[in-house]
Amino acid sequence: MIKLSMIEVHPLKAFTDNYIWALVSKESIYVVDPGDPNPVINFIENNNFTLKGILITHHHFDHTGGIKTLVDKFEVPVYGPKGGHIDGITNELVENDCITVLGESFKIYEVPGHTLDHIAYYSDSHQKLLFCGDTLFSGGCGRLFEGTPDQMHESLNKLKNLHPETLVFCTHEYTKSNLDFALVVDDQNDYLKDYSLKVKNLREQDKITLPSSIKKELQINPFLRLDSKNIIFNASKHASISISNEIETLKTIREWKDNF
Q1: Residue 18, domain CATH
Q2: pLDDT tens digits, the chain, 260 residues: what are they?
């Protein structure tokens, strides 16, 4: 549990490496990306909480699979991407929309790349929180299943320019594997080397590595460090090409990571 000034954020484990984030204030909660309804139901019933709403970042089943069961049981609104393609969405959201969640205002960012419909939820009213689904991971970014390197580059730039103290809540425990790759592509980064040891120790104890922060990601995440001469050199060497811009760097290291 991460206790903040207004809201507590609890990670609910799902499947092999997913996190469903539960935002709690007093006895009321919202959940982010409930791919599996059962951890949510158990959390609610064990604590006598009242579910007030569901936030969805994108259409993949491991983020949406629990919607129907939860709505049937609790009759709550479901916020998510526009398009009518996700069953159960009651409130479609687009860039610059704002919603209120447990007294906190969240701004919507469209962040395509991993999927074309991907959105992120950002609050900087009382506390700085980012729920970014599978767009930004600690130490990495999502695979480009539907979008292009250009789209992912633009999306990541939106997020990297948020306040440095923003807490980053992504939805998979990928940090160690991401940093294993980052250590290869950004092999002169001493901060990354030190931090990777901390993450290794946490995972050996089966402890969560999240949330991260924008400040930390700017130091460890190669997908937010595309102007690094060391990363450009290693990416060029790996792909045997001459890289001339950040989008080419992102494309090259994303393809490298896909096969790492």
Answers
A1: 3.60.15.10
A2: 666 667 999 999 999 999 999 999 999 999 999 999 999 999 999 999 999 999 999 999 999 999 999 999 999 999 999 999 999 999 999 999 999 999 999 999 999 999 999 999 999 977 899 999 999 999 999 999 999 999 999 999 999 999 999 999 999 999 999 999 999 999 999 999 999 999 999 999 999 999 999 999 999 999 999 999 999 999 999 999 999 899 999 999 999 999 99
List the domain range (segments joined by +) for residue 83.
2-258
Give exposure, 9-40, as e/b (b: 16+ Cβ within 10 Å).
bbbbebeeebbbbbbbbeebbbbbbbbbbebb
- Helix boundaries (H) for the chain: 37-47, 61-64, 67-74, 149-160, 175-185, 190-204, 214-220, 229-239, 246-258
Question: Could you tell me the CA-to-CA distances from 138 to 71, 135, 180, 204 in Å, in that order?
Answer: 31, 10, 12, 17
For the entire predicted model, the pTM comes to 0.96
Q: Which residue has the tokens 């090259």?
A: 252
Can you spell out the DSSP letters for 240-252?
Answer: TS---SHHHHHHH
Task: Indicate the number of domains in the chain.
Answer: 1
Whole-angstrom CA distances from 102 to 199, 237, 250 are: 31, 49, 36
